């Protein structure tokens, strides 16, 4: 893929990426798409790196469905959910009578992925014993179900993913170095959302259009204030967090303009006043003042968010004079929005 813009992609490839919410024009993002497309053309092991929520599983699916194994299964596995004592059983299956509760034979994830792709997410969570079993499978392209007499051939592509520094873990001995090299034939790094802030408007608009289709709504759009704070927020949960916040704003907002407040303010506005944790040994007037203060701030946050930061509208919703509401806002250190 030799391109400097998303629109310059091959239409088929571009449509595949759009369906997976891979939208953007930043250099880092386009580089990751280039890596994905290259990985789809070469049937070898691949390692996906990136923070939580950057789309590593979606990238793995893109590699699978754009590659030669598309007509065969894509089997995702969360390694963090596979304890050491059941890893081999889950991966390779077992024969009847392999252990006390093995009433009948059962195929494992490798057999289920035959001809297709096995995606191992959170690969860093595997114990050293489980890593040995996986390494042996990668070396021999064969597996032996627990309790079985012989080995079975496996025609499976392996894609692994992690949000950890696997290279550092291999140096420290927490992850087998030989397994790391086996997995790291093709490496793809998914950039965080804060590394591609210029993509936010494109991505947000795409998600809003998708929500409109999914929920049968007419055309809707984000309020102007949203684009300002979205570029300033760090997005620790990346695209997944963005999608969740936009969907919440989409469902809760009335009218064509979608109001999505900054996540921190959102959380504060939705906190209930919890008097169960009050120190009842304090002075009556002091306790009363604390509870009233908590109520005032919570109510103000709610009404300001509902009015998209417009104090005049917030005062109207609250049934108070604008000047009076403004004093309360200043008292609690809240910031007024644009008029």
UniProtKB/TrEMBL annotation:
SUPFAM superfamilies: Homeodomain-like, P-loop containing nucleoside triphosphate hydrolases. It comes from the Bacteria. The keyword Phosphoprotein does not apply. PROSITE patterns: SIGMA54_INTERACT_2, SIGMA54_INTERACT_3, SIGMA54_INTERACT_4. GO terms for biological process: regulation of DNA-templated transcription. Residues 22-251 form the Sigma-54 factor interaction domain. One of its GO terms (molecular function) is sequence-specific DNA binding. Pfam families: AAA_lid_14 (PF25601), HTH_8 (PF02954), Sigma54_activat (PF00158). Keywords: ATP-binding, DNA-binding, Nucleotide-binding, Transcription, Transcription regulation. InterPro entries: AAA+_ATPase, AAA_lid_NorR, Homeodomain-like_sf, HTH_Fis, P-loop_NTPase, Sigma_54_int, Sigma_54_int_dom_ATP-bd_2, Sigma_54_int_dom_CS. PANTHER family: TRANSCRIPTIONAL REGULATORY PROTEIN, TRANSCRIPTIONAL REGULATORY PROTEIN GLRR. This is Regulatory protein, Fis family.
């Amino acid at each position: 893929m030799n391109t400097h813009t998303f629109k310059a992609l091959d239409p088929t490839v571009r449509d595949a990426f759009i369906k997976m919410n891979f939208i953007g024009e930043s250099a880092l993002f386009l580089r990751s798409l280039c890596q994905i497309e290259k990985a789809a053309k070469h049937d070898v092991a691949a390692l996906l790196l990136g923070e939580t929520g950057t789309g590593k599983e979606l990238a793995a699916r893109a590699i699978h469905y754009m590659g030669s194994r598309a007509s065969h299964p894509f089997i995702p596995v969360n390694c963090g959910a596979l304890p050491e004592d059941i890893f081999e059983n889950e991966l390779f299956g077992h024969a009847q009578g392999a252990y006390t509760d093995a009433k009948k034979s059962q195929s494992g994830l490798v057999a289920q992925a035959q001809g297709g792709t096995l995606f191992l997410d959170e690969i860093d969570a595997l114990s050293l014993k489980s890593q040995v079993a996986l390494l042996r499978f990668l070396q021999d392209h064969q597996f032996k179900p627990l309790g079985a007499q012989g080995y079975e051939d496996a025609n499976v592509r392996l894609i692994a993913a992690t949000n950890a520094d696997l290279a550092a873990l291999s140096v420290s001995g927490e992850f087998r170095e030989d397994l790391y090299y086996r997995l790291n034939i093709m490496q793809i790094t998914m950039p965080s959302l804060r590394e591609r802030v210029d993509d936010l408007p494109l991505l947000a608009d795409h998600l809003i259009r998708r929500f409109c289709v999914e929920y049968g709504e007419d055309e809707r759009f984000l309020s102007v204030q949203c684009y300002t704070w979205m570029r300033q927020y760090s997005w620790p949960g990346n695209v997944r967090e963005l999608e969740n916040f936009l969907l919440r704003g989409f469902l809760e907002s009335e009218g064509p303009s979608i109001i999505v407040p900054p996540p921190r303010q959102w959380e504060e506005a939705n906190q209930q006043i919890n008097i169960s944790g009050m120190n009842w040994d304090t002075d009556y007037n002091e306790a009363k003042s604390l509870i009233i203060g908590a109520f005032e701030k919570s109510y103000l946050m709610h009404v300001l968010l509902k009015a998209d930061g417009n104090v005049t509208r917030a005062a109207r919703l609250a049934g108070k004079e604008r000047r009076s509401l403004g004093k309360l806002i200043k008292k609690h250190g809240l910031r007024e929005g644009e008029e």
